[in-house]
Amino acid sequence: MNTIDISNMKAKEMLGYFQNKLDEEAREAKKNGKLVCWSASVAPSEFCVTMDIALVYPETHAAGIGARKGSLAMLDVADRKGYNTDICSYARVNLGYMELLKEYAKTGVKPKELEESPAADVPLPDLVITCNNICNTLLKWYENLAAELNIPCIVIDVPFNHTMPIPKYSKEYIADQFKEAIRQLEEITGKDFDYDKFLEVQEQTQRSVAQWNRLAALSKYEPSPLNGFDLFNYMALIVCARSKNYAELTFKKFADELEENMQNGVYPYKAGEQSRITWEGIAIWPYLGHTFKTLKGYGSIMTGSAYPGLWNLEYTPGDMLSMAEAYTRIYINTCLDNKVDVLRKIIKNGKCDGVAYHLNRSCKLMSLLNVETAEILNKENNLPYVSFDGDQTDPRNFSEAQYDNRIQTLTEMMSANKKMRG
User: Fold this and answer.
1) What CATH architecture applies to the domain 14-194?
2) What pLDDT, on a 0 to 100 scale, did the predictor assign at position 3?
């Protein structure tokens, strides 16, 4: 595999380079008879990286297909296969992609949908690993992948946290799940788990997370050097490469660039930011440009979002209970009180003037408590909010007109609120 000098690259170039490198590594692994794993986005990457297993992330892959306007072709394949449209669109895009790869492997002829797709070329997995700390759909999705491909499925069970803080018995239970996953990987690979390397991988993960948090924290400044929509793009590496140095290097570079911009008075909006919002929910990948440009047209910048914070996986390397806690305190895996508390801090730290709630047809768990959360926070801070219908990768569930109308309304309410406050 060719190596390129990245020292003179801009952060955006590094992002593209490392995304392509990860896909290439998966293809090379498959070509050389090494194992490839398809992994859930917030399943622990540390175990497979320690075992030198190449990782592919179906959720990120599906988001990339959606952002490149290619999701409908994969959704149509899933529809024909009988997958219900109420199922998560990430799952349906991925299952459609799997069906096409299976057909290609069987016939040797690349299906038309793959030929014409903007999807990154990734190979079929030799095993899958999933974790239910963000939703239970992942369990059936990955069990189905394993059944269709006749491959092992490793499931890490992470209970929902109905109360906070997280009790010790929950952390112990999850740590035991981690140990069982390691045992299964040893069985699948025929190799002993290297705990010294595991510690190094954990330490690398923490360096990546530290730079990710440093980057996200830049939105606290007024004006903000960081447009929050950029976090949606750079999120690909905190998901797919947090246990390698690819993420650390890219985030550090981007944070350095933004800090330099701030020193030089360079900000995302040349005309200046008129208002600041929290975006609650997953990005609408097929309409990422439209959703951003509508906000920009009103001079409104996104400086708060809980979604990128899902990968704030801080823990103490070498301490399995600490790692267990990091992977269970994901805010959508916690009770209403904690979700409200998380958003309260995000709104405050981002110095936000209002909130836009994405009622995501695909992600029921993320959208379920939005109404209650919005009402509780509005009573506390009196900040205006709106909600709009959408979907992370199915473009049929989003209306540009409805979104534009809601953002215009939010902008007017934020402006009126500022005038009232003097």
Assistant:
1) 3-Layer(aba) Sandwich (3.40)
2) 64
